[in-house]
Amino acid sequence: MAEAAPPCRLYLALPATRSPMVERSLAEVIAAADVACVLLCQDAAEADPALDLRLRELTLARDVAFLVENEPARAERVGADGVHLPADAALYGQAREHLGQRAIIGVGCNESRHEAMLLAELGADYVAFGPTAALSDREREERAGLIAWWSEIFVVPCVAWNVETPEEAVNLARLGADFVAPSPALWQAEDAATRIAKIGAGLRDARSAA
What is the rounded CA–CA span in Å between residue 25 and residue 63? Predict the structure, then answer.
């Protein structure tokens, strides 16, 4: 009998503009769903060390990986597990040298197969497909095709970026996504925790029915 594929899990990319509501919603989602990773996205404002530490403590308590976007020094300072970077070989090399081989370093490749293959060969721990802004129908189809193509050929995990509904998450999981990242826009809703947890519940129910 063939070995079952690993379950698809949630990857939570927090919005660049954070608020107490976002922090509360994050705690609720982590308590309710199967969350693999939290990404602290880079914001225009000066970093809030107290917030960084609170989020790190929350993820540690739940055994959830904690990444920082684009800033290896900030990741090291807060004790994060690694960083998420754009698909750039030079940036990847600098981050790996700074953080070491044990750090998680993932890359956002949007729709680039070439960049995904190059960064995976260099040692990236995951590749993410799809834009971070709202997707057009064409971009949804392209992301789905990239996930299916990648999962058929490569062993490096892949993330489906900017997922909006449980149905979309389940479809991407069936195509081979190892992680799905709910749309950052969902965090701004008053019922953010409920909506994001439903995406996690959809993945869980799909695994149970398989």
Answer: 17
